[in-house]
Design a protein that fits this description.
Layout (H helix, E strand, L loop, with lengths): L1 H5 L9 E7 L6 E7 L12 H7 L18 E2 L8 E2 L8 E4 L2 E3 L16 E7 L14 E6 L8 E7 L2 E11 L2 E10 L16 E19 L4 E18 L4 H5 L5 E19 L5 E17 L3 E20 L2 E23 L12 E25 L4 E12 L4 E15 L2 E11 L4 H4 L12 E12 L4 E18 L11 E21 L2 E16 L5 E3 L6 E10 L4 E10 L3 E2 L2 E6 L7 E5 L5 E2 L3 E14 L2 E10 L7 E6 L1 H7 L4 E5 L4 E9 L1
Parallel strand pairs: 5-8
Antiparallel strand pairs: 1-2, 3-4, 5-6, 7-8, 9-10, 9-37, 10-11, 11-12, 12-13, 13-14, 14-15, 15-16, 16-17, 17-18, 18-19, 19-20, 20-21, 21-22, 22-23, 23-24, 24-25, 25-26, 25-27, 27-28, 28-33, 29-32, 30-31, 33-34, 34-37, 35-36
């Protein structure tokens, strides 16, 4: 429900290496996608690999903003969280310092993290281990670095898009802290409009965002440490949708002011024990509060609040050639929602949510969902060259009252010193989206989406400078939600579990490590993602299906002070549905709706983009500083993000006219960072 409402308010405007490695805290190897290699730094410093993402052109200094340069990751053309290896963005799960989180990207796809606070970022694109639950797509695991025990320092970062301050200091010989606070500046470059733009939208309050992170750590002794992490973010925007806008043309009662406010705050305590004999253990206790407020049109609104208490615990021990890990995760999620809105019944399988307009509803409810999982992992070093991980997870929730036993496995075999075989398999489940479960607007009896993952590939070293990986993957998806149209006998249920999916792909990655003042990487991905309505037997390409994605990234130290870099991306156009005609709107006489051809059988034009970045180290006021320039879409490519009716022409003639919406053209930003 919330995700469908959000689209009404859209304002215009790794080294990929799949290996079995031990998770830093739990020492249990899992099949993972590692960003440009393995972790190389201590926990108070950013890893070399994550630093490469921070410096990547197009990321604007945001390591998570660079994820689209990783194989298998696609950002929807219209914006929003990423889709990974053919799965839905809703299938992903996010962790911050071991704490589950639901919101790590701002509205315009930049992450909520300051570059100074991230120690490491791992993307587990498929086949991830049993310690992760409630995800059928991918895992984004963000580790915030530990505070350094150093004299008080302050870093100020200012660019055209964002301003931030970062403060770090020791508190004692065994404790330290840091605080990051940032605010977006785009609202100063998109002032309030007196008149609507060509899309019929008048900006009242340009998008505003802010975020913060605080972490303090205390080493109790050589074996025990305790940390406290606070994190939060907010996004706000307000606009008027006039009669010329696409949304209002389809639904005239949407005309008027619209507002969206999204924010969260989280707090977590983490205890870690590292014994002298290989015994390790950890406990994480956290609280997460999320608020989403949306208002639009004829006094329509949606308020959705989440208050969640979460706990994770694990213990790991060495037993001969085996590393055994036992762990659990539990969360109590209390949702409160109130709404007055027109009910639209739709999912990602549907071409246009506006096609199934139902009645006006007003409702307010509280629901509680408890999610839990327990797991056991055996990491067996069979020989010096063969490692096998076997995991078993039992996970589910008490709202749908479904619990699943999920076996998982990962194998690494070093066939030669320069060649390794890698493979994984696993079964996964997650709780359905709350908007599909809520009474009145959803089906409380809806079942949990399921997935089976399989991966197989090779990694190798050409020499000390070059390495590569080639991996194939397959995902079998089931129990996905289907929106029930009014012709179905059980249409009053609104949704059923009658969609399946199939995803298959192949990814090639070639990486050059930093030598002779330069490094870079190339990735090429091929994938096919489909969804099938098991009631009708109809199979469609997935809405975010993007078969071919190519990325080329290079970075060169021109002088000891100047660094230059580029990123080039080319990819197939996103799947779309051709508009082949117009018809009168049955709900609003005198208005028109599009007539669609075969669902998702067409594609947007090929997407290309070149970004460049230059950075220079310097001294300001006697302090260390750097100056950077980012230019996005240097070639000013006209990348189409959407095709819709040109209602001004349609209303005047009653005939079919199509208009394209494109991404922003060439865009530049400059900034400076100073440390006091």
């Amino acid at each position: 429900m919330a995700s469908r409402t959000l689209r009404f308010l859209c304002l215009p405007l790794l080294c990929m290496s799949t290996v079995s490695l031990a998770e830093d805290t739990e020492q249990s190897p899992i099949e993972e996608t590692v960003v440009l290699g393995v972790r190389k730094a201590n926990f108070t410093e950013i890893t070399e690999d994550t630093q490469k993402l921070v410096d990547m052109p197009g990321s604007l200094g945001d390591p998570l903003g660079a994820i689209t340069a990783l194989p298998g990751v696609v950002t929807p053309a219209a914006g929003g969280p990423p889709a990974v290896r053919g799965s839905s963005p809703d299938d992903n799960r996010y962790y911050i310092d071991g704490m589950p989180a639901g919101y790590i990207f701002h509205q315009f796809n930049t992450s909520i993290f300051d570059e100074n606070v991230i120690q490491d970022f791992q993307l587990f694109a498929a086949g991830f281990g049993a310690q992760y639950s409630q995800a059928t797509g991918a895992i984004f695991d963000v580790r915030l670095r530990d505070p350094a025990r150093q004299p008080l320092s302050t870093t100020v970062n200012l660019s055209l898009l964002r301003a931030g301050v970062f403060v770090e200091s020791a508190l004692s010989d065994s404790a330290a802290f840091y605080l990051s606070a940032r605010v977006g500046l785009i609202q100063f470059f998109l002032p309030e409009d007196d008149e609507p733009d060509e899309d019929g939208i008048r900006i009242i309050s340009a998008p505003e965002d802010s975020d913060y992170q605080f972490k303090t750590q205390w080493d109790l002794n050589d074996n025990h440490s305790l940390s406290l992490t606070l994190a939060g973010a907010q996004d706000f925007a307000e606009a008027e949708f006039t009669d010329l806008s696409d949304f209002v043309q389809k639904n005239p009662d949407y005309q008027g002011d619209a507002m969206i406010n999204r924010e969260f705050d989280s707090q977590g305590i983490n205890w870690l024990f590292q014994g002298d004999t290989g015994l390790q253990a950890g406990i994480t206790l956290s609280h997460y509060a999320d608020l989403e407020e949306v208002e639009w049109g004829d006094n329509y609104y949606l308020d959705l609040e989440l208050d969640s208490l979460q706990g994770r615990a694990w213990i790991s021990a060495l037993v001969g050639d085996h590393t055994l890990t036992l762990g659990s995760e539990y969360s109590e999620n209390d949702y409160h929602y109130s709404t007055r809105m027109i009910l639209f019944v739709c999912t990602e399988f549907d071409v246009d949510c506006d096609e199934d307009r139902r009645e006006l509803i007003e409702d307010a409810r509280d629901i509680a969902i408890a999610e839990s999982s327990v797991y056991l992992i055996d990491n067996w070093q069979i020989t010096e060259s063969v490692n096998l991980e076997l995991g078993l997870q039992y996970a589910g929730n008490d709202y749908t009252d479904e619990y699943f036993t999920n076996p998982r496995a990962a194998l690494t075999w070093d066939i030669l010193p320069i060649l390794s075989l890698i493979s994984s398999a696993g079964r996964y489940n997650r709780t359905p989206n709350v908007e599909y479960l809520l009474p009145t607007v959803g089906n409380p009896e809806l079942g949990s989406p399921l997935a089976d993952h399989y991966t197989f590939g090779f990694t190798g070293d050409i020499n000390d400078r070059w390495n590569w990986s080639l991996e194939a993957y397959y995902k079998d998806l089931s129990e996905l939600p289907l929106a029930l149209d009014e012709d179905q006998p059980d249409t009053d249920q609104l949704y059923s579990n009658d969609v399946t999916g199939e995803v298959r792909g192949l990814e090639l990655f070639i990486n050059r490590n930093l030598t002779d003042r330069w490094y870079g990487w190339m990735s090429l991905s091929y994938s096919v993602s489909e969804r099938t309505n098991t009631r009708s037997g109809e199979t469609r390409e997935y809405t975010f299906d993007t078969p071919i994605v190519f990325n080329l990234v290079g970075h060169y130290a021109l002088t000891p002070k100047w660094d230059l870099g580029f990123r080039f991306t080319a990819k197939s156009g996103e799947a779309t549905t051709e508009i082949i005609g117009v018809q009168e709107n049955p709900n609003f006489p005198g208005r028109y709706l599009p007539v669609y051809g075969e669902a998702y059988a067409d594609r947007l034009p090929t997407y290309t983009r070149l970004d460049i970045r230059a950075e220079r180290e310097l001294t300001l006021f006697g302090k260390d500083a750097s100056f950077f320039i980012d230019v996005l879409n240097v070639l000013n490519a006209d990348n189409i993000s959407e095709r819709q009716l040109d209602y001004e022409q349609v209303n005047a003639t009653g005939e079919l006219y199509i208009e394209d919406s494109a991404e922003m053209g060439t865009f530049g930003s400059v900034g400076v960072k100073v440390t006091f």
